[in-house]
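Hey team,

Filing this mostly as a record. A colleague (T.K.) asked me to run one chain through the structure pipeline before their review meeting, and I want the input and output archived in the tracker in case anyone asks later how it was produced. No errors, nothing strange. Just documentation.

Input sequence:
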Amino acid sequence: MSVSKEVKRVTVHVLQAMKSKGEKITMLTGYDYSMARILDEAGVEVILVGDSASNVMAGHETTLPITLDQMIYHASSVVRAVKRALIVVDLPFGSYQGSSRVALESAIRIMKESGAHAVKMEGGEEIAESVKRILSAGIPVMGHLGLTPQSIYKFGTYQVRAKEEEEAEKLKHDAKLLEELGCFAIVLEKIPAGLTKEVSESLTIPTIGIGGGQHADGQVLVTHDMLGITKDFQPRFLRRYLELFDQIQGAVEQYIKDVKAKDFPNEHEQY
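Output structure:
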């Protein structure tokens, strides 16, 4: 009789221990059951149910249109697939910026209705009250500084952030503040590598980089970008591990040819 091996859950404490030991943390995005199952079984520590679903799953130009209900739908799908990874869900635009009460209600809905383990929020001092209130309810919070896509219309561009001293100082201040409030980790997006190093070394909590260089305590990419399912997005920080757009398209074209040629199904593929 085979004995099933017990799966050890990744928790916020596990991530903290990884930083202490100098072990890098891996995070990828997941939006559906099938992909999340693959990511989990491959051994990624954190699956981010990102509001990037607005772009890669729904075809919107920005992350702004995705709703709280839609985020809960994606998160629920991921939760059903995952046995090991920590599941973090983005609070979507409009679900936390206006008031800390609304922020808490949004976070509680995500936790209750999806079964996820934590939420992620963009911003620093300006969202401190919301972070504090969510944490007071016992919900783990991951921060997000640097390029914050929900603020794209304020920035007007997806260029590297915090190159100027004033913005870099604010980012360092915000990172410290988020740590003091009780965030368990912070995503640093598209900032200079030297700043990532400085912030990562100044904090006791882990940093997760995306376009922030090699000195973060972990890395995150959008899975559809990393696998080459998205074709047009080609920033410097992205490494494509596969070119699935071309491979899937080729497979579909072959299927069409086989059906048209009456080659599929053959005698062995029917009853």
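Quick notes for T.K.: The mean pLDDT is 95. The first helix runs from residue 12 to 21.
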